[in-house]
Design brief:
9 strands, binds zinc ion, two-stranded antiparallel ribbon, binds N-{4-[(3-aminopropyl)amino]butyl}acetamide, 13% strand, alpha/beta, seven-stranded parallel β-sheet
Length: 337
């Protein structure tokens, strides 16, 4: 299957993140992408689909903010990456804000997602990879792989967080709807709940969001991903959360995947966007499931058995030395090997 990647995605190099009360080297490094490329061999540079497909998901004020945030930070005399440190508690009223510090808090929800000089360009090209892969599938390809990095599933219409700035999976799903598909499913198998994707489609019935992830009672992002979150309004019943305990191995994961696939099969979507995080891997340094490299193939095979065209979008996965093999294993399963 075709892999999409653009070298400009490497210009995002976050220095550090606030975790457990201290600063740590950032886990979402450019060498993650290099490690995947080294195993897959070759990638196609996506064409530039412009900002329209991004604006179909993200608010204009948020996109403007992202584009200029780092230069505003620098112009206000601050060194290094822009990082928020003050947040409005649960959606205060909309107010006009000029101060970069205020805007950083308004448009984010954590201190683990720095904005550097290359962040906008990298996030933009990451999203273009997802659009290019979706365009292939819309044109009849059975599968395509978007090597998105930075990842996207924690980002909503107007916020960033969880190492994510633009929601590539959501942008891909919306693009498929724009190409005549009426029902598009998103299956999210990253270790962390895809709160941004859930929020984007929470009140909609044209995109069904199904997620398998670590229980938010113990794991980031804490405030989303409980099994009683099922959508609202027209979207009631179109969100399905399947939280699992820390320590989950392949058997427990496959049981949840069976439930997820049953739900998707019943609904009958015309295409699937797979948010794939390899941070469910046993050796992941920031996550606590126990999936082994070879087992991703079975996961891929089960998803392929849905018989849907699939856009695979890369999300997390931080065990850099195993990341290429973990991605190759999943893709082999999806390709029917
Ligand atoms: N410094 C993805 O896998 N970790 N994002 C909490 C904060 C945040 C992971 C510690 C994990 C985000 C796409
Ligand atoms: Zn993750």
């Amino acid at each position: 299957m075709k892999t999409y990647f653009d070298r400009r995605q490497l210009t995002h190099r976050p220095e550090r993140e606030l975790h457990n009360g201290d600063w740590h080297p950032h886990a979402e490094t450019p060498d993650r992408a290099e490690a995947i490329l080294a195993v897959l061999g070759e990638a196609t540079q996506p064409e530039d689909f412009g900002t329209d497909p991004i604006a179909a998901i993200h608010n204009p004020a948020y996109v403007d903010f992202l584009r200029s945030a780092h230069s505003e930070w620098r112009d206000s005399g601050r060194p290094g990456d822009a990082v928020a440190y003050t947040w409005p508690v649960v959606r205060r009223r909309e107010i006009a804000m000029d101060r970069i510090d205020a805007k950083l808090g308004r448009y984010s929800y954590d201190a683990g997602t720095p904005i550097g000089e290359g962040t906008w360009s990298a996030a933009y090209w990451s999203a273009q990879c997802a659009i290019a892969a979706a365009a292939d599938v819309a044109a009849g390809a059975r599968t395509a792989f978007a090597l998105c990095r930075p990842p996207g599933h924690h980002s909503e219409a107007d916020y960033f967080g969880g190492y994510c700035y633009l929601n590539s999976a959501a942008i891909a799903a919306q693009y498929l709807l724009g190409q005549g598909r009426e029902r598009v499913a998103i299956l999210d198998i990253d270790y962390h709940h895809g709160n941004g994707t859930q929020d984007i489609f929470y009140d909609r019935s044209d995109v069904c969001f199904v997620s398998i992830h670590a229980d938010p009672a113990t794991d980031y992002p804490f405030y989303w991903g409980r099994s009683d979150e099922r959508g609202e309004g027209d979207g009631t019943g179109y969100t399905l959360n399947l939280p699992l305990a820390r320590g989950t191995e392949i058997a427990g994961f496959m049981d949840a995947l069976e439930t997820a696939c049953a739900k998707l099969g019943e609904w009958g979507p015309q295409a699937l966007v797979l948010s794939y995080g390899a941070d469910t891997y046993a050796g992941d340094p920031i996550s606590f499931f126990a999936i082994e490299t070879a087992e991703y193939q079975a996961i891929g095979q089960r998803i392929a058995a849905l018989g849907l065209p699939i856009v695979v979008v890369m999300e997390g996965g931080y065990a850099v030395e195993a990341l290429g093999a973990n991605v190759a294993s999943l893709l082999a399963g999806i390709e029917g090997n």
